[in-house]
Design brief:
Sodium/glucose cotransporter; mainly alpha; about 75% helix; single chain; two-stranded antiparallel ribbon
Length: about 600
């Protein structure tokens, strides 16, 4: 088909999507926005969000310990009394997204019947992974296996320091970084993508509630939903950036001083604020370049660096031990996943691990789900529901297990028998000698230093940590842009830059004022209300997909396709078949019914 014909066809299919699938409403994303000074802002969400941000920063810094205690009390109340709900809800999310993928709704395409992919599969996966949890894997891939090896979760009933403890440590780590968190992200991303691209609703959290609220999503119920989402996203990102640069600072000091022996990098608040300024400057340039020009390129660089570091350690590390640990860890994980998913520790030992780690992780993933899910939604147009779920749920989970095995096994190698010349004894010695916060920061670098060319691998790891922080800031800025612009897909450059700088400024102020940990606790506390929202989302997304499928299979849709055939050649993929119409108006099925 010629370019002109293809463009006409695209316009016609867009019209078809609007005519048959968009809700009967005269509202459009951002239709009440204020456009001044290079900004395009929602008249309620943007200014109120700024006020809330200022109030919380001031209260956290001025009240100090009182604010920290208040936030901690709220979080402890939810996690202590509703831990069972977190566990149950996340299991529901897994079942729900798998149902969407493998049911008849799996063939529905995000964006409409003729939507095309905006990004290649490789770029999509790179951005997906960078926004999801790449930075966490850099630090916890050594910390968690080491921690569980020395203090085995009660669920496993293994003796610390044994082979059984090592197997349990890897399986427990896989559990925290595997299918469950990606199911949370997948549910949110699918819901946001569907209601935005298929229904023409704003790319904000409010749109998911259209089946329940209807036009009221444009009123105060919708405003409140988006304001809570802005709060969780901005403070989650800012506190992670502030706490993360402490890890970067320590890592740089260790690499430059202890490994390379070339310089003494100071560790403290001022160097960390300087690091925040540098990371924010890079993130600002990237986000100004846009999703395709900046974020995609940095995410791709992240993935290449991850593969480089992973491949390097696979070669210089204990290769056979790593792959053996990977296979055994996956077996232990999958063999216990059902019991582990519902284990609360209420009826026996092991509750401390569930409360301190599992519930914490589930609350943290849920609190971050608006940010990660919205970013995933923004980059996923043109994929079917099945492609989306399989891509989001299984590929990152599989890669995470390989990454965790490579770094975790490299840290545990020789730890059971204390064999000379292995990394395990040195890592365990460091774990015993250092405070928890110090080992969390330095664990990976200490492990890398036990293998050949440790200076090179540690330097790559440091660079990777920095680029992950930059891409997290980038994607977070784009998400807040959507939330504060009424759900528009394209936001002015000045507004993107504003939020990138705001994230860095908030992190620097809280770091200087000593309120980072307190506000991170407050951010995690939003996990409980979001868990309730996500449970409702299971129903609203089901209703949306059900309605879409019914329309695709309806006589009205078939008649509309027939009418379009009188004008031009059109190729449309329906829920269960591909219909090709020609200029004569004939139609024939092509593919499986």
């Amino acid at each position: 088909m010629a370019d002109g014909e293809k463009e006409t066809t695209g316009e016609m299919s867009d019209g078809l999507q609007v005519e048959l699938f968009h809700p009967d409403s005269d509202r459009e994303p951002g239709d009440t926005n204020i456009e001044k000074f290079g900004f395009d802002i929602h008249p309620v969400v943007f200014p109120i969000a700024l006020v809330i941000i200022a109030i919380f920063i001031a209260a956290t810094i001025i009240l100090g310990e009182q604010a920290a205690e208040a936030y901690s009390t709220i979080r402890t109340f939810f996690e202590g009394n509703f831990g069972w709900f977190y566990l149950l809800a996340v299991n529901i999310f897994i079942v729900t997204v798998l149902f969407f993928a493998f049911s008849k709704y799996g063939t529905i395409k995000i964006g409409g019947v003729e939507a095309e992919k905006e990004f290649s599969d490789f770029s999509w996966m790179a951005m997906l992974f960078s926004a999801g949890m790449g930075i966490g894997l850099m630090f916890f891939s050594v910390l968690e296996p080491t921690l569980y090896f020395n203090s085995v979760p009660g669920f496993w009933g293994a003796e610390a320091g044994t082979g059984a403890a090592a197997s349990a440590a890897m399986a427990q780590t896989f559990f925290h970084w595997g299918l469950h968190p990606w199911a949370i992200y997948g549910l949110v991303g699918l819901g946001l993508a569907f209601f935005s691209f298929n229904r023409g609703l704003p790319l904000t959290f409010r749109s998911i509630f259209w089946p329940l609220l209807g036009e009221r999503i444009y009123g105060w119920p919708g405003h409140l939903i988006d304001l809570v989402t802005v709060f969780a996203t901005l403070f989650g990102l800012s506190t992670s950036l502030g706490l993360g640069v402490a890890q970067v600072n320590s890592g740089l000091s260790y690499v430059a001083g202890d490994i390379l022996g070339i310089a003494s990098v100071p560790v403290g608040v001022i160097p960390q604020i300087v690091l925040i300024a540098g990371i924010t400057a890079i993130a600002t340039l990237s986000v100004a370049a846009g999703l395709d020009g900046g974020v995609k390129r940095l995410s791709t660089l992240n993935l290449y660096l991850m593969l480089l570091l992973l491949g390097f350690l696979l070669i210089v590390g204990p290769t056979a031990f790593i792959f053996g640990t990977w296979v055994e860890g996956i077996g232990a994980y999958l063999g216990s996943i059902l019991s582990l998913s519902f284990f609360t520790g209420t009826l026996g030992e092991g509750g401390s691990t569930v409360g301190a780690w599992t519930i914490f992780y589930w609350a943290w993933w849920i609190a971050w789900s608006p940010f990660v899910g919205m970013f995933i939604a923004r980059i996923s147009k043109g994929r079917t529901v099945r492609q989306f779920v399989l891509g989001v749920l299984f590929l990152p989970s599989l890669f995470s297990t390989l990454w965790l095995s490579t770094f975790g096994a490299s840290a545990l190698h020789g730890a059971v028998d204390g064999a000379e010349g292995t990394a395990g004894p040195a890592v365990m010695q460091a774990y015993g000698d250092l405070a928890y916060a110090e080992f969390e920061t330095l664990g990976m670098f200490i492990m890398l230093d036990q293998y050949a060319l440790g200076a090179i691998s540690a330097s790559i790891a440091t660079l990777l940590v920095i680029t992950f922080f930059v891409t997290s800031s980038d994607s977070g800025s784009l998400v807040i842009d959507h939330l504060t612009s009424g759900g528009k897909h394209d936001v002015p450059k000045a507004q993107r830059v504003f939020w990138a700088i705001t994230e860095g400024a908030v992190a620097a102020m809280l770091l200087y004022g000593g309120g980072l940990a307190a506000l991170q606790t407050a951010s995690i506390a939003t996990g409980f209300p979001f868990a309730i929202i996500l449970t409702l989302m299971c129903y609203t997304v089901y209703q949306g997909l059900k309605n879409e499928y019914q329309i695709l299979e309806s006589e009205q849709f078939a008649d509309r396709i027939q009418d379009m055939a009188d004008t031009d050649e059109v190729q449309v993929t329906t829920a269960g078949r591909e219909v090709v119409t020609d200029v004569k108006g004939g139609a024939e099925p092509d593919g499986d019914d």
